Amino acid sequence: MTSHFFTTLRFVISHFSARRICRTVDVVVISLVALLGGSITRAADLTIQETIATATRAKMRVLESRHLVLITDRPERRGDGIEEFPGYFDEAVEQWCKRLSIDAVIAQPWKTVGCLIVDRNRFRSIGLLPDSIPPFKNGYCNLDRFWLMDQSSPYYRRHLFLHEGVHSIATTLRHAETDAWYTEGLAELLSTHRIEDGHCVLTPIPESSADVQQLGRIEALREARLSGKAKSIEEVFASPPDSHFHVSSYAWNWAAVAMLTEHPRYAAAMAKLQQGPLDQSFTARLLASADINQEILVRDFDAFSDDVDYGYRFSHSAVEWLTEESLTDQKTVVVNSSRGWQSAGIFLSRGDRVRFTAKGRFTLGSISPEIDQSGSPLTLTSEANGITLEWYRGRPLGRLLVSQWIDHAPLVSSRVAKPKDDRLKKDHGHFDARPGFFILETGQSAEFVAAFDGPLFCKMNDFPRSLADNTGTLDVTFKRLDSQ
Q1: Does this model's pTM top 0.85?
Q2: Cα–Cα 20 to 30 A to 73, which of 42, 272, 330, 467?
Q3: Residue 212 pLDDT greater than 90, yes or no
């Protein structure tokens, strides 16, 4: 007990905030009493009980669990899923505590009140939506109270509820006062979820659009890329405090936090950083970390936003930036079917003429409904031209893609071949998007002229969520031809 006592006390003191002195002392007292096996009645509990009584007198629905009091004026409808909210919320709290390094003893007595609103005036009339709360479109959190407007999508309703719940636990138990990109990005990351066998499972990067109906974060990133409006990670870090009023900002904030917490190059450093104060110095401490190479960080974020899709896994799609050399004659590289973009270790200058030829066969998972004579699922086997049984982003599944990574924005010369990428069709041949992968050619064999200065990359065309199912490689030989 003594060891646990001092561990808890050190945790609270390390996250102490003068602006939250009363709340911090409250948590200390509750933790000490819990450790000593006693009980105590808090003023906060009385406030919650008074809130419940007020809502009950107004004939609102009140649902309660260990960590949540849910109050709503939404009429009861069979199968609307509202009754499950408190249980889902408690399951999410357990997962949030692990992510936010919150001790279980600290979290055990924590409780928040969430109001799901159909009619704002009804809540205002009984004092459950104070005039001090600023206008909000979808949701707002003030420490251990939060409010959100009802939504037509069951998923998005839960998502907003969890989003504001993250703000509540982060501000009350971790005293979070970080920059907007992290505050909102973290809430987005820890509210993205799916319901699996009746349980709430957090999915930082969702597996499919069906899991997150009406969320649209990945679609927003793709649209920004295609329209030349993608953000750099420096721009995300500099997001102003009111950036959350813009829907697209949520997508970029989510992307930054998702990459920093899930990418193997940054996950350990980010986890260590999140154990410390979540204050206004957070971004500066992140960038000052000896474990963070800022040049690679910028490039990794551009690579992620360029290639992101449902089911994206950094374990299979994180890019290894190799040292490249000019192609003087020819070079053969091995391309793994279970990974995303892979460096060929070749740097091409604008105007270089190259021919490539690919040899080999690989598998693209299997189709369960189709059974071969052995009674096993039908394995999909492909060569570099791919298979037309299924397509991804306008190309056959498994088709070899050859691209260049472009770091800058040159004018596309009329004397060289144009990369096969729609983003270069706008603005009369000027390239004005963020750095990214630009496809030069595809298939088993082709010839192209480098349109830019930049390194070569290869991958087999496939859904990111399916890469883990693939096996096998291609041997791709690049041969330099006479330059134009």
Answers
A1: no
A2: 42
A3: no
